[in-house]
TrEMBL record:
Keyword Membrane belongs to the record: yes
Protein name in UniProt: Sporulation integral membrane protein YlbJ
One Pfam family named in its UniProt record: Gate
Coiled coil: none
InterPro entries per UniProt: Gate_dom
Entry keywords, A to Z: Membrane, Transmembrane, Transmembrane helix
Nucleoside transporter/FeoB GTPase Gate domain location: 49-143
Bilayer-spanning residue ranges: 12-33, 45-73, 93-115, 127-148, 154-175, 235-256, 286-309, 330-347, 392-409
Species per Swiss-Prot/TrEMBL record: Fontibacillus panacisegetis
Keyword Membrane: yes
Length: 415
């Protein structure tokens, strides 16, 4: 009976995908000019923002894994990540990576660790869910400076985005304590058993970290040239897939809004589908400042169906599920919306002049055309490169901070 039910579900899924594909092709043929313009917006976002912002980080992921550095850091992060998030230390460095680089960098790193046998499928899905953030460059430069015309508002969005994402991860961890029992033992745990040394010893941590780095480097066994070539090739392949998702969802958003012009708000459709185009549409809506920023925070936490499918495209071939990830996105978006409304008044008092400037921008836009070209709101390459340097430093500082906190935690546990 269950096999019949699965076959029926598979047939229904095939039918839905087939009808959707035919509808999409028909819509493109019906209005090729407008469709080309919509896909051009998606291509501009990918080429000017996503590609340069993510390429160095995804290459860095491969190098860190091949050199063994990531595995050594994971040993030192074990006390903190296991206690706070129920994750092995080998996946702990993915959290600052996701915070600074944005998606789908965390998914690429988690899938690589899973293929190496360092974490289980459940742990990989959980760390991807917890580490899925939008990059600071998108929030500060693109949304704050470009879309809203007021960088101070981006600070509100960034702080709320980080707090709500971490709160969602801790919440889901507390609601699923059974994950600890199903987690696979990490290499560091195996090393503890073989060496029969107190796992809370600080000397044990550094010595085992060096051993794990050497073990991972020898297992990889690639030269630097081969490793760098493979890293760049893998990064470009991942980013090409990401660009394809952004382009196709730009077309889907345009088709839905054309077919249902007065039924569903344009900003709701865009925010549901794709985060870049969604935040642009929300920022163009004539809303009160608090509601506008709250909707932007919710859209960033949700991050769109496009982001979900991008992550699934990376995790799916490795056999990693996506149910927890989807739940996490809903909780993240809900936390961000509520937290923005709760903190809006304190933030505006802390940042004087924000509300008058925001009101002036909305008044200017409401008197103009209802159509806005996204290209004129995107930053130039010089600004993107300067913020890329900032994100790299932020990633380094977060890793150092987590290491310090983990060592303090270990020392306090000894007392």
């Amino acid at each position: 009976m269950s096999q019949v039910h699965r076959k029926e579900r598979s047939l229904l899924s095939t039918l839905i995908f087939g009808i959707s594909a035919v509808t999409l092709v028909a819509a493109i043929i019906y209005a090729p000019g407008e469709t080309f313009q919509a896909s051009g917006q998606g291509l501009t976002i990918w080429w000017r923002i996503v590609f340069p912002a993510l390429l160095p980080f995804i290459v860095l992921i491969e190098i860190m894994l091949a050199s063994g550095f990531a595995h050594g850091v994971g040993v030192l992060l074990e006390p903190f990540t296991r206690k706070a998030l129920g994750l092995p230390g080998s996946a702990g460095w993915i959290l600052p990576l996701g915070i600074t680089a944005g998606y789908p960098a965390a998914a690429s790193a988690a899938a690589a660790l899973y293929r190496q046998g360092k974490i289980s499928a459940a742990e990989a899905e959980k760390i991807v869910s917890t580490s899925h953030f939008c990059s600071p460059m998108l929030i500060i430069v693109v949304i704050g400076t470009g879309f809203l015309g007021h960088p101070r508002l981006a600070l509100v969005l960034l702080i709320v985005h980080w707090i709500s994402g971490l709160a969602a991860g801790i919440t889901l961890h507390l609601l699923s304590p059974h994950d600890r029992s199903t987690a696979l033992p990490t290499k560091s745990a195996e090393a503890v058993t073989s060496d029969q040394i107190d796992p809370l010893s600080s000397s044990f941590g550094f010595r085992t970290a060096l051993k794990e780095m050497e073990r991972a480097r020898l297992q990889d066994a690639r030269g630097f040239g081969k490793m760098l070539g493979d890293s760049v090739s893998s990064a470009v392949q991942t980013l090409m897939a990401t660009g394809g998702f952004i382009l196709i969802f730009a077309v889907i958003i345009h088709i839905i809004n054309t077919a249902l012009p007065n039924i569903i708000p344009h900003s709701f459709v865009a925010g549901l589908m794709e985060v870049h185009l969604g935040t642009f549409a929300i920022a163009r809506d004539i809303l009160s400042p608090a509601i506008c920023i709250a909707f932007l925070g919710a859209a960033l936490g949700w991050s769109g169906i496009s982001a979900f499918l991008q992550v699934r495209a990376i995790l799916g071939p490795a056999g990693i599920g996506g149910r927890i990830f989807l739940i996490h996105r809903i909780v993240h978006g809900a936390y961000a919306y509520v937290l923005t409304l709760l903190l809006w008044k304190p933030f505006t008092e802390w940042l004087p002049g924000t509300l008058p400037a925001f009101a002036a921008i909305r008044e200017t836009e409401s008197s103009g055309s209802q159509y806005y070209d996204i290209n004129s709101f995107l930053p130039n390459l010089q600004l993107v490169s300067s913020w890329l340097e900032t994100q790299l430093w932020l990633f380094l500082l977060l890793v150092i901070g987590m290491l310090g906190f983990s060592l303090i935690w270990r020392n306090r546990s000894q007392q």
